[in-house]
Design a protein that fits this description.
alpha+beta
Length: 98
Amino acid sequence: MSVATANIAQLKARLSEYLRRVKAGHEVVVTERGVPIARLAPLGSAERRATRRNRLSRAGVLRVGRGRPRKALTSPPAGSEVGGDVLAALLADREDTR
């Protein structure tokens, strides 16, 4: 694995290029006035495959519940059109702005 060095200005100007290098398995050491301050390194395969929910849970940002969510939380009420109220509000707002 090769290591590239970039100062903050270079990193800002060519961020996409440095991220491509990291995706390819290389590391990038970020410097400020010649002093290393950060390292960009590729994630391990397990981290790349982890779901957002799992990552947030491990970071302590999200507390995962137990069991299945209630049906009322996962499906629209019977007989209602999903998003109908939102669409009606958007159309009414559009008419008001004309």
